[in-house]
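Researcher: Re-running this chain for the archive, since the previous output was lost when a drive failed. Same request as before.
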Amino acid sequence: MSGDVGDPGLKLDSYLPYRLSVASNAVSGLIARAYEDRFALTVPQWRLLCVLAEDGRLSQVQIVARTVMDKVTVSRAAQGLVKRRLIGRSQNTSDGRSHVLTLTPEGRGLHAEIAPLALAYEAALIAGLAPEEVTLLKRLLGRLQSAAGQLAGEAPSSPSLR
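Model: Regenerated structure tokens:
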């Protein structure tokens, strides 16, 4: 019987997808609390702010592709940020049906305030790793993300680790 105690099959604590999920949830939860407590931002809102700070004007479709967040999550994050006047939303002149999002001066200011905190959290998380281990971890995560995309039938791409 596969459900018997002592079964040599699947062990959750050594199952890589589970371990990745648990680690991701722990890191995301830690950072989410900091963004929520100090800046009243959700993680999707923070990601949207970061993408716009890095890439400039983007449509919501481009943000979905860039962040690997679903359309509804991006839309809700954008609505909240527009309401707070951290991003602006305008008609996309290239197709006339979609909208383009951009950071407002207030959004750029908030990003500039939060970015050092994000970098400090990253530094604290990787403090126990050697630089070459961090490089290897980033490379391996990229490869896992690419493999997951291929298994899901997506076109190969250079994965973003945000």
